[in-house]
Amino acid sequence: MADYIQETLALTMRWVTRLSRERFSLLFTLAQPMLFWLILFGSLFQGAVDIRGIDAPNYMSFLAAGVVVMTVLNNGLAGGVDLLFDKENGFLERLLTSPISRSSIIVSRYIFVMGITSMQVVVILLVAYFFGVHPETGFGGVAGTVIIGLLFGIGLTSISMAMAFAVKSHGDFFSVIGFLSLPAIFLSTALVPFDAMPGWMAFLAHLNPMTYAIEAIRSLILVGWALAPLVKVVLVMIAFDALCLYGSVGIFKRNVG
Amino acid sequence: MTQQASDGSTAIEVVGLTKRYDTVDAISDINFQIKTGEIFGLLGPNGAGKTTTLRILITVLTPTSGSARVHGFDVCQEATKVRRIIGYVPQERAIDRFLSGREHLLLLGDLYHLSKQDTLRRIDEILKLVNLEDKADQRARDYSGGMKRKLDIACGLIPDPKVLFMDEPTLGLDVESRLRIWEHVLGLKERGITVVLTTNYLDEADQLCDRVAIIDEGKVRVIGSPKKLKADLGGDGISLALLESEREIDTLMSSLQALPGIRTVKANGAGLDIRVDTAEAALPRVLETVAKSGHGVDAIDYHRPRLDDVFVAHTGHAFRNEASVNTDG
């Protein structure tokens, strides 16, 4: 067990060191959801349209939950990128010839991606607070939001890592990520509520696990501790994570087992 | 680092190793033994199966059939035990460009579950050994090709390995760096480390390795020390290019064949290829016989047997490398 902690910690710290060396990338990663989606997109639509079905004091407090979950989505989907590069430059093989538990590589990645995502979620809520978005559930709601983000992120990171191992080239990886990301956002309630969508999009949005994460967080921000969305999100996320892990574990075993 | 005597015990035993992809055998029925403390080379052109063999030995590839043991541990059944006693220097510069050289070694120290003290002590020793002390705290992205290779070797030495595996250790390096890497490898041998390397450089196999296995089309063709392989081939080679080579030469060939110290005489269209015990002793007699026969000599060439000759003799074709010349440095 001591060995496992030692190797997992060392691998996790490697990701942290790498990120800290990429200052620009770090800055843009952190700032992108805030600046682009929350502030620009939020302000743009604040007065531009009167969207049907929004039950919120203003558009930005409606949008905040969407921006949080979009961030979780993008971080999760990109979670396998570094493994992809390790695979391509042979660093992974070096790790695999050392006497570590194979799972520590995967686990270090979860810890890192989840840690970064949680920090980002807190920062987004903080920035939103300064724009007048004051969650009904206070600090408890912030914790709840982080937990929902983690639940969604685990499944996404699994998919991303599995794909990093499965793809032939990193071009394929980025095409698939790019293809998944935007439809997932538009076919959810991130930007508009169900009532404002065409019927077929609302139907698909109901099948999108991302929607349930957004609805639960939105309820924490706008309504309070309502039970129904929280129960729903927990059930949906358990199913989603189980499915993602089921699909990924075989690929992990084949590639780093 | 511990000193290990090269006591002639077996470090690696490979029996009937086969790896099949779909219907194609990347390697088939590979057998060899490597003694503790020797430098063993897997020599062959690209795609011959050297790297496949190596990747099975370092536990990252499972064979279709056959077995391989490293110091008695099976590479499949007891992979973790094997991993504890081997070091690996990959072919690609498997370097994280965001980390410094020292950070690479610290990370590996944790992956081999060393204590902080042991790691630091070993890092000092290894950096001195590979001559990378001054640059240890620079980011690896600023390293030259030769420095990256040194860091690769340093990484391979962190576990204080009994066996060090090197995949094409000098591929794409300039001549000076190559010689320096060879020196390092010889230094490791002195410390009692068994070194197993793949190479597609004939001179590397010839000058660095104690023994080589020539691998071609997934099979081991011959194993032995370069010296013995060349000696077994039978003496030196003499090539004569004859004037008027279309003239009847059967009589000449049989009178040459009758000379002492001559092994084989073959016509090659432009003249004769003659294998002799030693060129110095045979050459005067050969030239005398040719002169008597009335043939004129256009050119004479003689050479000690080279590893290329050994390769040709055992594979039936010349050593070809389709490797692109400008492999990344």
In short:
The complex is a heterodimer of chains A (257) and B (329). Chain A is mainly alpha-helical.
Describe this structure in words.
The complex is a heterodimer of chains A (257) and B (329). By secondary structure, chain A is mainly alpha-helical. Helices cover 81% and strands 0% of the residues of chain A. In chain A, helix 7 (138-166) packs parallel to helix 11 (227-256) and helix 10 (209-222) crosses helix 11 (227-256). Chain A is globular and about 60 Å long. By secondary structure, chain B is an alpha/beta fold. Chain B has helices at 50-57, 79-85, 101-111, 116-130, 145-157, 175-190, 202-208, 226-232, 250-257, 279-293, 307-315; strands at 10-21, 24-35, 39-43, 65-70, 73-74, 86-89, 163-167, 194-199, 211-216, 219-224, 236-242, 262-267, 271-276, 297-303. Chain B has a six-stranded mixed sheet, sandwiched between helices. A four-stranded antiparallel sheet of chain B has the order 2-1-4-5, with helices on one face. In chain B, strands 12-13-11-14 form a four-stranded antiparallel sheet, with helices on one face. Residues 1-5 and 323-329 of chain B have low confidence and may be disordered. The interface between A and B is medium-sized, with 22 and 28 residues.
